[in-house]
Amino acid sequence: MSKSKKRTAARKHASTAQKRPSTSSSAKKTPTARKPGSSTIKKGAPAKTQKWWWIAGIAGVVILLVVVLVSVLKPGKTSAPETIAVPTAAAQSSAANPNMPTNPPARNNMYSAAPAMTIDPAKTYIATIETAKGNIVAELYADKVPNTVNNFVFLAREGFYDNTTFHRVIEGFMAQAGDPTGTGMGGPGYRFNDEFDATLTHDGPGVLSMANSGVNTNGSQFFITFAATPWLDGKHAVFGKVIEGLDVLLSISVRDPQTATTPGDLIKTIRIEER
């Protein structure tokens, strides 16, 4: 080979070598910028060290996830506690209480105190008792016995009377309701004083009055008369009168809670209208 051909071959070899990536460990490397807060493993660290760094990182993430799941799934209070505080006046409305137990017996003694005054005694209140046999509509005497009417309106609006029954019904006398247990022994968990007005008497059928177990022991139970019962005047607080559905009232099935084997006639709900 001539000298000129040898020189040409040498130049081609050098040019090709410059285009190949360097695999030499002694080649100069450009330093990589480290991001703020990042964890960087230095090059040249043993493979085992890098492996343990990864295991530690994964273990930390797993522990964090377990802590989060435990805190989220930790059992809390039930949405319907056995005893709840009476809502303030601002919280009361015509909508039923979302915390009201759906099973009536679970409502027994659920309140700690009688409700605050929320009705306007200057207004008229109409109660519609929806039963399985039809509706019974009554006017409530808010202007004459405001505390008693306020109690009834509060419980009705809360949904306390929903799906309860006429648990005690005596032919020719009265139909009693308002006990969530259906035994005649249940109530809201509080008592309030008797409230009488001389002009309100048990003078005929359709009188709404408070049931009690003695002086100043009113709660949630009430009754509606089938006939005049003057011997109850001054002992039971009259607070309303049936204005529609007297025939429905008189059709309610007779029932003695001490001997009955089936529930009394159903009260679906009691709606309150303010006029």
Q: Using the 3D structure, state the CATH architecture of the domain at 121-274.
A: Beta Barrel
User: Helix count?
Assistant: 4
What is the helix fraction of residues, given as a range?
Answer: 10-25%
Q: In percent terms, what proportion of residues is strand?
A: 15-25%
* Class from secondary-structure proportions: alpha+beta
Please report the total strand number as a whole number. 9
Rg from alpha-carbon coordinates: 40 Å
Low-pLDDT residue intervals, each spanning 5 or more residues: 12-45, 66-94
CATH topology of the domain at 121-274: Cyclophilin
CATH class of the domain at 121-274: Mainly Beta
Provide the succession of SSEs: HHEEHEEEEEEHE
Looking at how many chains there are and whether they match, the oligomeric state comes to: single chain
Mean of the pLDDT scores? Answer: 79
CATH superfamily of the domain at 121-274: Cyclophilin-like
Strand order of the largest sheet: 3-9-1-2-8-6-7-5-4
The dominant shape is elongated
Largest sheet: 9 strands, antiparallel
- End-to-end distance, in Å? 121 Å
Description:
The chain has 275 residues and is of the alpha+beta class. The protein has a domain at 121-274: Cyclophilin, CATH 2.40.100.10. Helices cover 23% and strands 17% of the residues. It has four helices and nine strands. It has helices at residues 3-19, 47-73, 146-158, 246-250; strands spanning 125-131, 134-140, 164-165, 168-170, 174-177, 207-210, 222-225, 238-244, 266-274. A nine-stranded antiparallel sheet has the order 3-9-1-2-8-6-7-5-4.
